[in-house]
Every structure is written in C-alpha cells, then in structure tokens.
Amino acid sequence: MMKPRSLSLLALPLLAALSGCGTGLIPPITRDFDAVTFTFPAPTVQNPVVFYSTTNQLGSLPAISSLISSVEIAGNATYTGFGNLAKIQVYIRQNLSGCTIQTDQSYVACPADESANLVQTIDLVKGQPAAFKLSGTILTKAVQNKLGYLGVQVTGGGALQGDKLLIDSGKVTVRF
C-alpha cells in the first residue's frame, strides 16, 4: 500500500499538467480593469496607419500568465470629440519594429498591413458606449509573454487630433 505522502507527490505533476491544458480544473478568473483613454495623436480619416501606444500594457502581469490558455477582454468604447469617428479596428503587437515614432513619443504609426495583429472591429456612435469583446490567439500570446502594445486604426469616419476614445466597464477573463 502506498503511503499518503507518496500518493500526493504523484498527483502533483498530474494536476500541474492538467491545469496547463485548459481542462477546466481551474475555473476562469474574471477581474475588472481600470478605464483607459486613447487620445488620437493626429487627425485620422480612414487612415492606412495603425496608431500604437508605446506603453507595454501587459508588462505588469504576474508570472502565472504563461499558464493561461485563453483571454477575453470585454468592455465599452466611447468616442468623444469633434470628428465623426464611426468604426475602428483594434490591434495588439508584441513589438513595435517597423513603426514610426510620433512627435509626442507616446504613440507610433505602423503601416496598415497589420491583419495578423487584428483583434476586433468596433462600430462607434459619438458619445454612446459600444460594447466589445477582444479575444484570439494573438491576444492570448501577448498575455502569456507579458508583452502587448494596443493599437487603433480608423476604418470609418474620422477623428481629429485630441479626440478621445474611452475604454471602460472592462472585465478581463482568463482561462487556464
């Protein structure tokens, strides 16, 4: 007969392996996140450029992020300003190579051939919150690596320099 200690030592590697495979042994974790404001650094009208923040939004995640099997970010996006912004595409990159630093240094402009980094398209009505859900392999990999720069491309209407996009009421759900 096995000693109880031996049995628990055998179970540890099995539990560790199963928890990393998205088996549902660890329930999903949902947390609120603080509101984020994106200020458009330049006038944009259905621009073939994606503006990325130069801040790594995922750098402060805990080390456990490597065990995550999927991520979903849900919230509201509200456009305010003097333009007529109607649609944006949201992107995430793990590096900013090939991009041009903008005058204020907090944003870079990247060519619009970013389809591999596309996370979501969001339809907007000025002043009204638009619900969104961000998910996908590129987002999950960025979270696992704790390296992610969020970007926005205008694909409908236009925004003027200084117009704002508020992301709030947000929840992040991670699955292991």
Automatic annotation (TrEMBL):
List the PROSITE patterns. Answer: PROKAR_LIPOPROTEIN
Q: What is this protein called?
A: Lipoprotein
Species of origin:
Deinococcus ruber
Q: What is the lineage of its organism?
A: Bacteria, Thermotogati, Deinococcota, Deinococci, Deinococcales
